[in-house]
């Protein structure tokens, strides 16, 4: 795992605050699109060194672009294709240090170098993914993965 340092402790506290902010933002709002829109804006404000954050939602057995912050993106992604499609097929988070080394990577933004994708699961079915890209190699670590998974589990309670 990771070594407990002051930076890691501070990073964890910041993520814990982020999750409390998310809950406050979405707890009384039943609309999925509104909640995904606000949560992507919240992540965009909170996370440093990212160039895209948003959601893809499952529709008719493929991922379709949902609310996001960043440059225009790929609209549809087939299951099993790219980091997002692979995360859905495997039903697990994919943290990629260098997207150019990932087989079948879909380059929506040439500036993206690393990526993390967390599946959103409801009733044991993947209903979408949280996708975050960075212009830096190896941007996402174990702490990011853990707390982004907690972030998505929090979202799942309200979808």
From TrEMBL:
GO CC terms in record: cytosol
Residues in GAF domain copies: 54-154
GO molecular function list: L-methionine-(R)-S-oxide reductase activity
Entries under Pfam families matching the protein: GAF_2
Gene3D superfamilies named in the record: 3.30.450.40
InterPro entries reported in the protein's UniProt record: FRMsr_CS, GAF, GAF-like_dom_sf, Phosphatase_reg/MetRdx
Family statement: Belongs to the free Met sulfoxide reductase family.
Protein name stated in the entry: GAF domain-containing protein
